Amino acid sequence: MSLCQPEHSSLACVSCCGIFNLRLSLKNILLLLNQRTSSFKETGLQKSSIIRYRELQEQQESIIKRFDSEIYVCPFLGYLHESKPGCMIHPQITQKQQSQNYSFYGAAICQSYNCRNKDSALDWSVVFQKASTDWIEYSRLSGYHLQTNKIINKFKISKQADIESLQSALVQECRQWLQGNKNLPVTSFEIYDP
Length: 194
Ligand code: SF4
Ligand code: SF4
What we know:
Elements: H1 26-43, H2 47-61, E1 77-79, E2 85-87, H3 91-94, H4 107-112, H5 116-119, H6 125-131, H7 135-143, H8 145-155, H9 160-165, H10 167-180
Antiparallel strand pairs: 1-2
Helix pairs in contact: 1-2, 6-7, 6-10
The structure holds iron/sulfur cluster (2 copies).
């Protein structure tokens, strides 16, 4: 089960692509993703068009304030299906293994980056899916390892079986955290609590 793109689910985590680093309301995040998706579809998958799309989209989004000016916001994040977000230049979309080289990070980083939750031996995807009502909530939970660590300590979790046996309580804990952190700018690169 992939934490980033769980199978058979409309949920996905996209925190490390920078979208929550934009100082936008949730409504405007959704509008922006719709705009990116339509513009990218119109652009097509020719090399020159993809490069042009990135230039124009970055220019257009440069007026949006960031929480952290050091953290990149990638314009290739859009919708893959009706409401499932993901990378619009992922090899599965373009059929080209290196197509993420059109992005700032490049294919090597995009395909190998593991945030701390993804890198963990513990699989949280089921708990996070059950706790989330949409991909935004799922992304906040999946991308924010500082909260996961707090849960691990609070419930004394040391193995996968603990997650399974405590599932209801963990889902409830995640729901409570989501309610109190609706606007947290999760990027997956957090070191300290803001
Ligand atoms: S923040 Fe982690 S779980 Fe989310 S998309 Fe990135 S690597 Fe995957
Ligand atoms: S190119 Fe990389 S950073 Fe950009 S949306 Fe795709 S995976 Fe995310």
